[in-house]
Design goal:
- The protein is mainly beta.
- Helices cover 9% and strands 39% of the residues.
- A four-stranded antiparallel beta sheet has the order 1-2-3-4, with no helix packed on it. It has a four-stranded antiparallel beta sheet with strand order 7-8-9-10, with no helix packed on it.
């Protein structure tokens, strides 16, 4: 009876503190020890465990605390060909962070070069991947309508050109045959 009551109390405590996943990122995992599925709530990052059939929270060490809470907005992941993937990136408060499994710590990338509003870096989209041929990690972010990529050597963000991105063209009567390019 005592075990039953403890189980009920633990289940109730979990349900009372459970949150909703607001974003998910996944990759094709090549190792059995990792699902390759990560999700974020507003204040934590979780990895899905097939073994436990549950979401396991990653430590929040190194992430910024604002008003007593960690605030996480975006996530991107990739398979870095390791048993302990460190290809997990988040945007929290006003910086991009990369997770280090061995140190159980989030490390901030420099904000140098990103668009700022009110002194805070702005990021509305985040993407990261590993080039398997060069073993180079690419991190991209959308900041104030431009795509930036992280330059590891310079420890900064550089905007890609917006040349070629045009506004929507109004076609006469929606008919392509009436539209001339030349």
């Amino acid at each position: 009876m005592r075990k039953f009551l403890v189980s009920c109390l633990l289940a109730f405590t979990f349900l009372a503190h459970s949150q909703e996943v607001v974003l998910v990122a996944a990759y094709n995992n090549n190792y059995n020890g990792n699902s390759g599925i990560f999700g974020i709530t507003n204040n934590a990052v979780y990895e899905y465990s097939w073994y436990y059939a549950a979401w396991l929270q990653l430590p929040v060490n190194g992430l910024p605390v604002v008003g007593g809470d960690v605030k996480i907005d975006l996530i991107s992941t990739f398979d870095n060909n390791s048993l302990n993937p460190s290809g997990v990136y988040v945007f929290a408060d006003s910086a991009v962070f990369v997770y280090n499994y061995y140190a159980e710590l989030w490390y901030p990338l420099s904000n140098e070069g990103l668009c700022r509003v009110g002194g805070k870096a702005q990021v509305t989209s985040l993407s990261a991947h590993l080039d398997s041929e060069s073993d180079y990690v690419y991190v991209y972010a959308v900041s104030c309508g431009s795509v930036y990529y992280y330059r590891w050597y310079y420890n900064d963000w550089l905007a890609l050109s917006n040349d070629g991105i045009e506004t929507k063209l109004d076609l006469p009567d929606g008919n392509l045959s009436d539209f001339s390019v030349f």
